[in-house]
Design goal:
This protein has helices at 10-21, 62-70, 98-102, 109-124, 136-143, 146-161, 170-181, 199-212, 258-264, 340-343, 346-360, 417-436; strands at 3-6, 27-29, 41-45, 48-51, 57-58, 77-80, 83-88, 91-94, 192-195, 216-218, 223-228, 236-241, 246-248, 251-254, 279-289, 296-301, 310-313, 327-335, 369-382, 402-404. By secondary structure, the protein is α/β, with parallel strands linked by helices. Helix 1 (10-21) packs parallel to helix 8 and helix 5 packs across helix 7. Bound molecules: flavin-adenine dinucleotide.
Amino acid sequence: MKIAIIGGGFSGLTLAYFLAKKGLKPTLIEKDKILGGLASGFEIAPGIWLEKFYHHWFSNDTDILNLVKELNLASSIISVNPVTSFYYNRSIFRLSSPKDLVHFNLLSWEGKLSLFLFTIRARLIKRFDKLENLTALDWLRQTCSEEVVNKIWKPLLQGKFGTYYDQISAVWLWNKIKLRGSSRDNLQRELLYYFKGGFQSLCEELGHRVARLGGQILLSDEVVKLDPSPGNPRRIEKIVLRSGTVLECDAVFLTPSVPIIKNLLPEHFQEKTQWDIHYLANRCLVLILKKSLSETYWLNVADPSFPFVGVIEHTNLDSPSNYGGKHIVYLSKYLPVTDELFNMPLEEYTQFSTASLRRMFPEFSETWIEKVFDWRAEYAQPIVTRGYKNKLPPFTLDASNVYICTMAQIYPEDRGTNYAVKYAKKVSDLFLERISS
Ligand SMILES: Cc1cc2nc3c(=O)[nH]c(=O)nc-3n(C[C@H](O)[C@H](O)[C@H](O)COP(=O)(O)OP(=O)(O)OC[C@H]3O[C@@H](n4cnc5c(N)ncnc54)[C@H](O)[C@@H]3O)c2cc1C
């Protein structure tokens, strides 16, 4: 049986691995020159890899953690209790544990209690159907004090989703609070995991396993056309690559983002409103510094005067000794691809970014910067609006040999490598069940 998998991110890679384990020999096509997609890395110095966009796992990311164990790589999982903080009104507040909440002077005592009760209540919700038709802001206004909405949640939603902030589904927020809030150790400190050597090395290992099981990986080639069967336009018979190679196929799995899938399958999408899913892009500046900015790994920004959603000091998660003693900081911004900042030339963007950083950390100086890397992703975050459930793309197109496994299907959870693995398992099981019946 000829199986093609389009995309070599975590969805495509794990699909290939699960199918190859069952004795099938899939061909995976990835347009980039390396595997990994949004979780892929780059070399900050020869042999030292880092993710283009900051990555970690939560303790409840069990699908990917179990996959790592199955690959006999559990010894590469690093567990850390990093410091999380909160930036508001030009001040930084540490917020890593319930104890920190007591000293969180940004809020009044009523506000602290309201925030605490809201997070507990959110974590206790099991059925989310009542949240489905609410926006996050509607839900927050019903359950939190005005102070908590205005000082915490509203600026956080604005920072992440920009002008979409008041359309985001309550389900999205509920899940974030539930998953992030329950990734804790016995002392209720946040517990995160990282993969020693970077996520790229895990992707490479998955690629080797697929090849050893008989699968094939084609890099630096792009699927430009899916040719339907002349007898049945819903069946894909051939896949045309940019290199001119034509692959015959009995089944095809599509893992890129929805707009790319729609372009590849125009005859399935005559109606423009079908799978009407919008995304935000992300621009991430990676600063390689001589000095550390602070002890915080994850600095949530809820301050409209600062233009980034987060300042992530990676070397407070994974030791600077693994990066030649350097300190690594990500400045992350979600924005539409049309935004001026997404398209700003690097030099100008760096100046803009470091000026903002100096306002946050007055002791920071440009002389600390050794290198700057600039990464952009067009489809970085599906925008999960109210009633998103009704927009979810199906896992397979009716009466066709086309399977879909894409980030935008992840619901009620938010995208993440764990859910790429979880949903790849779902889709491969669906396929295996179909071919065995
Ligand atoms: C800023 C940021 C931070 C994140 N942080 C975390 C985190 O901390 N933890 C976590 O687990 N997850 C995190 N994520 C999410 C995680 O990266 C994604 O959920 C996951 O990598 C998605 O994998 P995927 O395979 O579904 O999609 P993708 O990674 O998008 O893979 C799709 C692949 O398809 C390829 N492709 C597209 N078109 C074609 C074509 N025509 N032919 C061939 N190939 C094609 C692309 O090049 C790409 O490699 C983060 C993402 C971002 C943007």
